[in-house]
Amino acid sequence: MSILATHSTIFIDRYSIKNNYFVEKKGDFIDVKRVESISDINKIHFFLLGNRLETLYMPSAIIIVEGQCDHKYISRLMEIHYPDSNISVIPANGDSRIKEIFNLTKNLLGDIQKSPYKDRIFAVLDRIHGKGLTASLESMGLPKENIVVWNKNGIEYYYPDSVLQQIFNSNNEIVIENDVVKMNGLEYTKNDLVDLVVGKLTIETRLPDELKKEFMVLIEPHVSI
User: Residue 172 — φ and ψ, nearest 5°?
Assistant: First the structure.
C-alpha cells in the first residue's frame, strides 16, 4: 500500500473516489475521513485545494446554500435522485457570504451571461436573509428564477414528514429555538438532526411539496436522469 499526502489536485483519484481521504486537525486531535461522494470531492477542490475553474470539473449544476445543514441535506438529495450527475453544492456559511461565493464562481466562469452556466447556478436562501441580497445577486447576473427563497425560515422545515415522524415519534410541526430543534419532548441540535435525517433518506422518501415544486424542478432539466 502507498500513501501520498498532497495539496495538489493532480494526484486525486477521480476514478475510485474512496481512495481519497480528508485529514483535518482540530486542536490536539487529528481526524481522518474517507471521501464518500462526488460532493466530498467538490468540497476538497473548491475549499481545500484552490478555487480554480478546472477544479469544478464542469458540474451539471452549481448550488450555493447558506449553511452546513443545507449543504448536508441538499447534497444527499442530489446524490440519491441524480446519482449519475456531478452537482456541486457549495455552503457559503451564512447568507452574508453568498454574494462572495457567487462572485467567485462568476469570476471563474467568465462572462456569466455568455457562459453555459448562466442557467445552471442556483442560490437557496432562508425566508429571512440579508436585505437586498436577492436584488444584488440578480444585478450580478444570477437569473431571478434561479434564486430559491423558502417560505419558512430554515431548511429543517423541508425535511420529509415521514423521516421527522420516525425521529420524533410525532407528526406535529417542529419548533426551532436558536440551534435546537424540538418536537414531542425531544430535542436535537440542527447538526445532529440533519445527520439523522440524511441517514434515513431513500429514493422512495416523499419530499415536501415546496421542495419539489420550488427547487427540485429547477435542477431536473440540467441533470442526466
Answer: -75, 170
H-type alpha helices, 27-116:
38-43, 68-81, 98-109
**Cβ atoms of residues 46 and 55 within 8 Å:** yes
Place of cell 425521529: 167
pLDDT at 53: 41
Q: Mind listing the pLDDT tens digit for each residue in 40-88?
A: 766 665 555 444 443 445 678 899 999 999 999 999 999 999 988 888 8
Which set of grid coordinates corresponds to residue 66?
447558506
- Lookup: cell for 219: 435542477
Contact 210, 161 (CB under 8 A): no
Q: What are 85's three cell numbers?
A: 450527475
How distant, in Å, are the alpha carbons of 30, 33, 68, 71, 206 from that of 25? 4, 11, 19, 22, 38
Rounded Cα–Cα distance for residues 127 and 117 (Å): 25
Q: Phi/psi at 180 (nearest 5 deg)? A: -115, 135
Question: pTM of the entire structure?
Answer: 0.73
Determine the Cα–Cα distance for residues 75 and 61; give it in Å rounded to an integer.
12
Residue 71's nearest CA partner among 97, 51, 50, 108 is 97
